[in-house]
Amino acid sequence: MKLSNYPLRTLKDAPSDAELMSHQLMLRSGLIKKLASGIFTWMPFGLKVLRKIEQTVRNEMDESGALEVLMPTIQPSELWQETQRWDDYGNLLLQIHDRHDRLFCYGPTHEEVITDILRKSIKSYKQLPANFYQIQTKFRDEIRPRFGVMRAREFLMKDAYSFHLNQESLEEEYEKMSQTYESIFRKLELNFRKVKATSGEIGGSISHEFHVIAESGEDEIAFCDGENFAANVETLDGKNAPNGGELTYARGIEVGHIFQLGDKYSQSMKLEVLDSNGKNVNPYMGCYGIGISRIVAAAIEQNHDDKGIIWPKAISPFAISIIVLNDKNDSTVMDHAIKIYQELRADGIEVMIDDRDERAGVKFADADLMGIPTNVIVGKRGIEQNKLEITSRRTGETTEVKINEIVSHLKG
Ligand code: ATP
Ligand code: MG
Asked: What residues of the chain score a pLDDT lower than 50?
């Protein structure tokens, strides 16, 4: 990507209503644009990050054996009446009337839709267990949308739903999903913790959340490593861990939540299968969510300094950024830079080049703000001395590398 082709500018200051660092940095670097309260457009760099997170989640879900589907965003109110969640969810539901005055909602979650699909298409225990997932836009009419994409009204979620003949099978899949989540958040290079949680209006008894650790997190979590115990403080009765151990507290951002739902949905929606004795039973269900768009903000909360974002390599919009200190009267600098850019691209490396007609100070400040992990600085002096500076955004460390070794150095 050539920055000279990109029409938008970074901003020196964030709007005053952006309280959280990640929100400020996302707006200043132009990752997102606000359309209305809690509703955002993903701009090119932001979208690249979002897609990387999405792809990591997709790969790990596929690896676990779950099957990807794409359900409609719009859902008929009748389904929600069956489970009584039309009332339970209340004002969080964005209600829509069609031209025949039928009532719908924009889906905040999809237990009803997937249960409806299964009750119409499975008959026997032999078709279970099954786990379906999707990566899709949700809408929740949050009372206080804030912190940008952290608590938005429209946001991207991965949601999965599993169905089982019995509790034992549900627990097996629940454990598999938990391990899949650990693997996803490790791959995304996030510092996270799995904690015991409450289930809310989704239902069921057992649930766990995955929190990215950050000072600014809305939740408080408590843990005792000696007892291998960790919980959202919402679930705690006492001031100690179950065996009396002392609790340590931290703040967290909820990026994932898994639930054992039991037969709440299969009962109320009359999903039944024949078991091995020919008897009709209600399958057990699990559901598993990840806040894909919230992860972008959470990753920035965990990875920034006062100059800007410091992307983890796994989700950075680009691996390398070439900063060209061009000279209007001498095209050799730009020629060298473009050559390196093209060689890296030919090798499949995601690279951007700051080839704009801007002062060096502007380019360095933007590079710090954008947070690409590795910067290559191409200027007149470097070319004359036949070595270029490569700097790490995270450590600030600089290495000098001979020009004809740059590409192999960056590839390695
Ligand atoms: P919260 O407690 O933050 O309101 P929730 O418990 O209502 O979230 P779930 O129903 O568990 O959310 O949804 C699964 C995941 O979707 C959450 O773990 C979170 O990462 C993400 N998510 C939920 N609400 C939002 C939102 N308003 N904006 C962005 N992401 C969200
Ligand atoms: Mg939750």
From this structure: none
Q: Of 240, 274, 305, which marks where a domain is finished?
A: 305
pLDDT tens, residue by residue, 85-139: 999 999 999 999 999 999 999 999 999 999 999 999 999 999 999 999 999 999 9
Q: What is the CATH number of the domain that holds 382?
A: 3.40.50.800
Query: Is the shortest distance between the CB of 140 and ligand 1 below 6 Å?
Result: yes
What pLDDT sits at residue 34? 96
Residue pair 184/60 in contact (Cβ under 8 Å)? The answer is yes
User: Which domain range does residue 348 map to?
Assistant: 320-411
Global pTM value: 0.97
Neighbour tally for 168: CB within 10 Å: 9
Going by CA atoms, what residue is nearest to atom 2 of ligand 1? 254
> Is residue 313 included in any domain, yes or no?
no
Q: How far is the CA of 108 from the centre of ligand 2 (A)?
A: 12
Please say whether the beta carbons of 122 and 272 come within 8 A.
Answer: no
Span from the CA of 152 to the centroid of ligand 1 (angstroms)? 9
Whose alpha carbon is nearest atom 22 of ligand 1? 291
- Compute the distance from residue 314 Cα to the ligand 2 centre, in Å: 25
Same domain assignment for residues 266 and 292: yes
